[in-house]
Amino acid sequence: AGSVASRRRIGYLPEVSLYYPFMKGREVLELYGGLHGLSRVELRRRIPELLARVGLADQGETLLKNFSKGMQQRLGLGVALLGSPDLVVLDEPTSALDPIGRADVRQVIRNLKQRGATVFLNSHLLSEGEQVCDRVAVLDHGRVIAIGSLDELIGGATTVRLRVTQLTSVAEQELRRYGAVTVEADWYTFATVAAAEVPSLVEEVIRLGGRVHAVEQRRRSLEDRFLQLLDGGGEP
Questions:
Q1: pLDDT tens, residue by residue, 28-61
Q2: Orientation of helix 40-53 relative to helix 69-80, angle to 10°
Q3: Does the pLDDT at position 2 exceed 90?
Q4: What is the per-residue burial (b if ≥16 Cβ within 10 Å, else e) of 213-232?
Q5: Three-state SS for 205?
Q6: Is the separation of the CB atoms in 13 and 81 below 8 Å?
Q7: Helix (H, G, I), strand (E, B), or coil: what is residue 76?
Q8: Residue 62 three-state SS
Q9: Span 160-169, pLDDT tens digits
Q10: Cα–Cα distance between 26 and 24 in angstroms, integer?
Q11: C-alpha 207, offset from chain centre
């Protein structure tokens, strides 16, 4: 379980933060700050700063029964940051928030990183993790099936869509060496192509007699990689 001193260096935000509805936002922070061992003097200094930091600067005297789910999530984040922790564990911190709230949480995480804190972020919103995480672990039923930096997991792979005409079925088969390809009308979509190979792919289409009318390129996302991993495709 660790010592009390070590636990004071940890901040935790559960997925669902439940507080007494008859309390005010400020009172919740005072309660948890006292449990954390912070003095009244330190709490008077820290609480206004924390409320502002999580976007609740004018809500300190508001009863929690009047808080929306997103406001409660923001307050829970404030509780997690009370002791200036070295390790912060956040479970779905943006699930109840609007786009502005999600952007605020991302900035809080970046500030923690700049301060030297370690942040463990659990989220099903993979785009959120992609914007703030240095390393990512993908879990399937509690088992880690991939772990690494974003570059290691995603790499330089891109999804490429080509609008092509005059391409024969034989030529289509030859193009499969660039990876999985789906065809819909005149659009050929290559799910995973190394960014450096895109020019050679276009040249190959032309060499095979195809006429290229458009090229669309999108870097593969963390969600793309996640779906590939859960589909059983371990290799990029």
A1: 999 999 988 889 999 999 999 999 999 999 999 9
A2: 130
A3: no
A4: eeeeeeebebebbbebbeee
A5: helix
A6: no
A7: helix
A8: coil
A9: 999 999 999 8
A10: 5
A11: 41
